[in-house]
Structures are given as structure tokens and as C-alpha cells.
Amino acid sequence: MYIRRKTEASNGSAMTYLSVSEFEQVLRGKGESYQALVEAAPDIIYALSAEDGTMIFLNPAFERATGYLRSEWTGKPFASLIHADDLNRATEAFRQLLRGESVSRLELRLMSRAGDYLVAEIGAAPEVEDGKVVRVFGFARDVTERKQVGEALRKSEEKYRTILENIEEGYYEVDLTGAFTFCNDSLCEILGYPRDELLGMTDRQLTDEKTARRVYKVFNRVYSTREPSKGYGYKVIRKDGTKGFIEISISLITDSAGQPSGFRGIVRDVTNRVGAEEALRESEARYKGLVDTAFDGVVIHQDGIINTVNRAYATMYGYTVEELTGRSVLELTPPEHREFVSTRIADGVEAPYETLGLRKDGTRINIEVSAKNCLYGGRPGRLAAVRDITEAKRAEIATHPLQESSAIRVRRKFCLPERWGCMDQPTERITFHDCESITLLTISNSASSARTAVLCGFWGM
């Protein structure tokens, strides 16, 4: 049997040993060098009587650990020092020693003067004379702090493991080769593999060759820079052969020496989102194709500012699509008509109406506008289809020359402004004309109505 003592070493964990005979010399006041070592040992060194388990020797470490004086416990049974819940195990260990067997790494709680208990790791061996155990020698190391740290670590690991097992996102840990060393249930569900199959697999088994090379570059960059990566997305192949899309975060794992030992991160299944985005892009592409090939002009504006137009709309006004983006729709309206147009935009009017448009070169065109409110980019906007009806208006003049000349005469006779209109009282129908007396809206042919018409200047549409 050997009594173990701790000595300082470069790693702080070296041990030397005392034989039974050497320890006996210490007890008898001999072997001064060994006695000095026992007295200075950080662990409790003790000796018990085999007859009744009383303590016959305690070194100074006992006083430092328990707060008791050695003299207070020398000659008293060791059992009085043991926590009640540990007494059965301590008694059984003592019986084992009396049978000539050694005891090692037995954890017992020892009472302190303060009234609390310290956790001690016990080792002991019997001294046998003439086939009979006469003494028990041993040591007790205070591992209270280590146990507390270990328990705190266990609880912490248990808490975070519970969190990881209950979050919807996947969690992974891989070694430096990319092989999975840990994963939660969510990751198994995302990839379609049971845990026992997924552990040990690498990302190369979950992607095509081209994607695997890209993923390797990202992990290698994290390894080289030690800077984490977030939101990196790529396609994966599930166990059943279906394809999904995931976004992952990557952080470097280091060992106690600060050397890289692996990677960890969160995995989010974004297959549905990516699918919806692709469907939206396809839908927008189809919509844009339809709009760009439409004969009528199409414009989407928000707060009166143009966001999107098709080629027909840009051509109608003599601009390019790029030139119109970001402009106000009122810039394409003659000044005297802006209040009219602005009011219809503000009121959200959806009924078609006619007005004038102002081209880039300053010329005016007759237009018919059909508009409705909409959402664009998540914000309220207005979608309008605009048709150039200038030629239709000119054809209308050619079809009704007498009526048009009559309108011109009326304007000249009463010195009406360039924009004017007349209201028929019986029908309350209003006819609007421009500077050339081209009818902008309704025309009345009734002679009787003409006699009762009220002529008025009209300055805004």
C-alpha cells in the first residue's frame, strides 16, 4: 500500500508515494523528510484504528479543509464526521478495508466546523500484520469546488441541450473534416436522416459536387479568418432524393489551447421561402412580358411618383423607361389639368376619365385613363392603363364638322378661354373643349339644348 502525496510539477498534477513502512516512520516521529512532506501535503492524510475506526493521525490539511483542530477529532470515530446519507457507503468501505481490500475514488461528504459539508474523494489501504488488519491509512482530497463546477456545467449543458432539442432550427457540430459530431432532432428532420446515419456524414454527401466546393470555401474562410459566417444559403439533397434549400451560420470551435477543432452553427430550412421567391420572380417576369407587349401604356406610381412603366407608356410620352422612373406623374400633365388629375389620384377614382397628356417635346395628347389602387412592394400604389385617343378625337371632328365649327364660333363669340365647357341644363351634361374647340368629353347636338346652355370658362380637369 502507498500513501499518495502531491508535489508541484509543470502541469500541477505530479504525485509521489509513501510506503506503509515510511508512513509508520512518520507516525513514530522518524523519517523527518517524509514527515515534512506529509505535514505540507495539500490533501488530508489520515490513519484509522482497525479496531473501532477511530482516527489516530490527521495532518494539517485536515484543519484547512474542515476548520476543525486535529486534536478535536483525534481518537474519535471517523463515522461522526460523515454525512448521514453517506454513512452506509462509508461503513461498507471500512468493512472492505478490514477484509484487506483497498478503496479508491470513494466520494463522501465530510462535516466542517461551519456546519456545511465538503465533498472529499477518499482513497485508503489496510496495513496487515500476521494476516490481520491493524490500521487503515488513506487520504482525502477536497473536490467540492470541482464538483460544484461540474454540476454547474452539467446543468448548463442540460439546459442548452434541452433548448437545442426544442428549437425549430437545426443545430450542428462538425469536426475539421466536415463530419457531423453532433446534431439536434430538427436538423435530422430538415435533412431526412436519422441521427445515427447523419453522425459521421459530411456535407459532401448532402450536396452536388459544385455546391460542395462552394461550401468548402466558406468553411475554409471561417477557419482562416476565425470570423463567423451568417446566412449562407445552398441546396441540399435529402435522403429521399428531394432537394431543399438551407441557410446556415458557421462558427469556429477551438480547444482549450485555442486551436481549431471543428465548426458549429444553426441551420434554417428556407425551402418554402425560396420556392415562393422563385415563383414570385417567374410571375413578375410573366407579368413584365405581358405589360411590355401591351398596346396601352401601363404605369405604377406611389404618392404620385412613377415606379414602373412599360415601353408603350414611355413611347407615348416621348421618353425612355429609365427617364420616367422616379418622375412625378403630374409632370406628364399640362399645368391646367394637374388639379383635376391630382384629385382623382387622391380620391382613388377607378372610373375611366379623359384628360390631356404632356409629351417630352411639349406637345399635348388626348388620353383616356383607367386606374385602380394596388399594393406594390408592400406599399399602397396606383396602377393605371393609359390610352392615346388623340387620333380618335380627330376622327370625331372629321365626322361632325358642323358641330365642331359651331363650337369654334361659340368660343370666338363669347371670347372664351382656351379650356372651356358648357352645361346643358335639362340633361346636366357638360361638354369640355380645348383651345382648338376639340371636344374632350361629351358633345351635344340638340338645338334646343344649345339655346339653354350656360357657357362657362373651365380651367382645370
Average of the residue pLDDT scores: 81
Q: Tally the helices: what do you get?
A: 16
* Poorly predicted regions: 1-18, 435-461
Structural class: alpha+beta
CATH topology of the largest domain: the name is: Beta-Lactamase
Distance between the termini: 112 Å
The named CATH superfamily of the largest domain: PAS domain
Large-scale geometry:
rod-shaped
Total E-strand runs: 20
Largest sheet data: 5 strands, antiparallel
How large is the radius of gyration?
48 Å
CATH class of the largest domain: Alpha Beta
Strand order of the largest sheet: 4-3-7-6-5
Report the portion of residues in β strands.
25-35%
Q: How many structural domains can be distinguished in the coordinates?
A: 4
Question: Which architecture of the largest domain per CATH?
Answer: 2-Layer Sandwich
Helix content: 25-40%
Notes on the structure:
By secondary structure, this protein is an alpha+beta fold. The chain folds into four domains: 2-147, PAS domain (Beta-Lactamase, 2-Layer Sandwich); 167-274, 2-Layer Sandwich (Beta-Lactamase), CATH 3.30.450; 294-388, PAS domain (Beta-Lactamase); 400-457, no CATH class. It is 35% helix and 32% strand. The chain has helices at 20-27, 32-40, 61-66, 70-73, 87-98, 144-166, 185-191, 195-198, 209-225, 271-292, 311-317, 321-324, 338-347, 390-399, 401-414, 447-451; strands at residues 2-6, 15-19, 44-49, 55-58, 103-111, 117-129, 132-142, 170-175, 180-183, 229-237, 243-254, 260-269, 297-302, 305-309, 353-358, 364-376, 379-388, 420-424, 429-433, 454-457. The strands form five sheets. Strands 4-3-7-6-5 form a five-stranded antiparallel beta sheet, with helices on both faces. It has a five-stranded antiparallel beta sheet with strand order 9-8-12-11-10, with helices on both faces. Strands 14-13-17-16-15 form a five-stranded antiparallel beta sheet. Helix 1 (20-27) crosses helix 2. The longest helix is centred in the middle third of the chain and has 23 residues, at 144-166. The protein is rod-shaped. The model is unreliable at 1-18 and 435-461 (pLDDT under 50).
